[in-house]
Amino acid sequence: MLHLDASPRANRSRSRDVARRFFAALPDAIGVTRAELWSMELPSLDGGMIEGRYDLLHGNPVPDNVKSEWAAIGAVAQSFLDHDGFIISTPMWNFGIPYRLKQFVDVVTQPGMTFRNDAAGNVEGLAAGKRALIIAASAMPFGEDDALAGLDFQSRYLQAWLGFIGVTDVETLNVGPTFGTEDDVLEIMSAAGERAEGIARNWQS
Ligand SMILES: Cc1cc2nc3c(=O)[nH]c(=O)nc-3n(C[C@H](O)[C@H](O)[C@H](O)COP(=O)(O)O)c2cc1C
Predict the structure, then answer these.
(1) 88 CA distance to ligand 1 centroid (A)?
(2) Given phi > 0 = left and psi -120 to 50 = alpha, else beta, which region is 23?
(3) pLDDT per position as a tens digit, 174-188
(4) Per CATH, is 2-204 categorized as 3.60.20.10?
């Protein structure tokens, strides 16, 4: 399993705390790689890189450094695909996801790497058969029945992205609201932790 940890908070991250409860309930036999998105090196997709990508796709000559940088991106995508499943723990930022997580998505979501498409518009996700858990923390409540649900571009975006690359077995655990009285937040965190443990037990069977 690959854990994509998208909170930059060193301590007291709500999403990471719930992820910890999930991993504590997983059997030791299930190996977990942890990717701390705020400290890991991520290639940047600047103008030269994007132009180079189109040139590579069209079989045009490209400078060696662009070739090797795209090979490095291919390696990040491949190490992502080398896992059987993904646990994404993330805060909501301005209704969406933090930009480091978006950068990771942009880096690995490349034709021929995590999906294939053709001129007729057919798309084949190359992560098919894998499973995912989204642990989505937010200060305000964004559960399906909450009034703000329509503004959720955090878990819904991640569900759409995972579906695009072929992951259809996706569970979502909304952690929130994380803003409130200490007692209320404690109760919400405790309930989210219990749900995470329940999901982990299910993953064992
Ligand atoms: C830059 C920034 C933007 C945020 N935007 C939202 C938001 O749009 N909606 C919301 O409910 N909470 C928002 N929050 C609050 C976090 O989602 C919330 O505190 C969450 O529990 C943090 O998770 P973490 O502790 O794992 O980082 C924002 C926090 C930050 C730092």
Answers:
(1) 15
(2) alpha
(3) 999 999 999 999 999
(4) no
